[in-house]
Write a structure and sequence with these properties.
Blueprint lengths: L1 E7 L6 E7 L10 E10 L5 H6 L7 E2 L3 E9 L11 E5 L12 E5 L3 E3 L6 H20 L8 E4 L5 H12 L3 E6 L2 H8 L7 E4 L7 H8 L5 E5 L21 H7 E9 L8 H10 L2 E4 L4 H4 L4 H16 L16 H9 L8 E3 L1
Parallel strand pairs: 9-10, 9-12, 10-11, 12-13, 13-14
Antiparallel strand pairs: 1-2, 1-4, 3-5, 3-7, 3-15, 5-6, 6-8
């Protein structure tokens, strides 16, 4: 069965993506369902986590956000029946690529796709929607009047965070890196309270946030990575990101910083500043839901709510035009290198 896989070099940094055929999976059993895949969406592969969890293989399957039609169910399946339209996220230890024509998936990894939601929208939103819920509800508590700072809000994840925060009545501040992204956010409905172009050397992030919040600071910060050191010591890909001290400085009393920076390091003065504000830091890692089934019901509830928000128009994802499978290799290489601004989806 044909699918997309990645081959790691010894350094785990040089990744090669290849389309190849693999043997088909065994027959349907127990709580598993077989689906015919209609659309698969791409997200970057966290090779470091796969290695740490000893899930690294010679060829890692690519494409874990899928939407399709149930064609066969196991004898113990209770959630679905044949011809149901479903969407879900494949587990990290899945051996099949999401670009395979058919997949065998546990029923607890899937939810029903609403009829008025397109295949591309469903697969392209499911993961970013889950991450947005974690940032604003699991790790923090967004509510009406809350000041939320979304870093790089014009990317697919940032856009969903902004839309969910708006739905809860929060006041949104967002950063961008160019005028094109600034124009996009300024045209969003409902409107973003303030868009800060951090590429402008005359603009100070901390001062702008304090001015917008009347000197009180931001209640929730959701980042897309941070600078840990001075700009001269950081790699080129991180030089446009905010410095960790800036984020700590603009946090309000009892504020929450939700970070995607897995190597975050805090010096004693940083910890002291957090202590004085009674603030907290949480790490955003959406893989925890499938690494432990302790809160499986809550996980499925979030996925169902993401689909509901998509069906009523609360979520309006940033998707590129669906591409054919023969362009999947090039598209995934660009996703892995963070060279695309819209979600990449493949139509099968």
């Amino acid at each position: 069965m044909r699918g997309l896989y990645c081959q790691l070099a010894e350094s785990n940094e040089d990744i090669k993506f290849v389309l190849q055929d693999k043997e088909s999976f065994p027959s349907v059993c127990d709580h598993y369902v077989k689906i015919q895949v209609r659309v698969c969406a791409f997200s970057p592969v966290n090779t470091k986590m796969l290695t740490e969890l000893k899930l690294q293989k010679d060829f890692l399957p690519i494409g874990r956000e899928v939407a399709g039609v149930v064609i066969e169910i196991g004898p113990k399946v209770s959630f679905f029946k044949p011809n149901d339209e479903v969407v879900g996220i494949l587990p990290m230890d899945c051996t099949e690529s999401g670009l395979s024509n058919t997949l065998l998936i546990h029923e607890h990894s899937l939810v029903t796709k609403p009829e008025n939601v397109s295949w591309a929208d469903a697969a392209g939103t499911i993961r970013d929607g889950l991450r947005a819920y974690m940032a604003l509800h699991t790790h923090s508590s967004v509510s009406a009047g809350t000041a939320v700072l979304v870093m790089d809000g014009a990317n697919p994840f940032g856009t969903i965070v902004i839309q969910l925060a708006h739905h809860r009545g929060a006041k949104i501040i967002s950063t961008v890196h160019n005028n094109e992204d600034k124009k996009y956010l300024e045209e969003l409905k409902p409107t973003v309270a303030r868009v800060i172009n951090v590429s402008d050397s005359k603009v100070d992030l901390v001062d702008s946030c304090m001015e917008e919040t009347g000197g009180l600071g931001v209640n929730i910060v959701v980042d897309c990575g941070v600078q840990l050191y001075s700009k001269d010591d950081e790699s080129a890909v991180k030089r446009h990101l905010p410095h960790k001290h800036d984020i700590l400085s603009l946090l309000a009393v009892a504020g929450h910083w939700v970070t995607t920076e897995e190597n975050l390091q805090l010096d004693p003065p940083d910890s002291r500043l957090l202590f004085c504000k009674g603030a907290s830091i949480s790490f955003l890692n959406e893989e925890v839901w499938q690494l432990s089934n302790m809160q499986q019901g809550k996980y499925l509830h979030i996925l169902k709510d993401v689909m509901e928000k998509l069906s009523i128009g609360t979520f309006r994802p940033q998707l590129d035009e669906p591409i054919p499978i023969y362009e999947a290799t090039v598209a995934m290489e660009m996703v892995q290198k963070n060279q695309v601004r819209k979600k990449q989806v493949v139509r099968l």
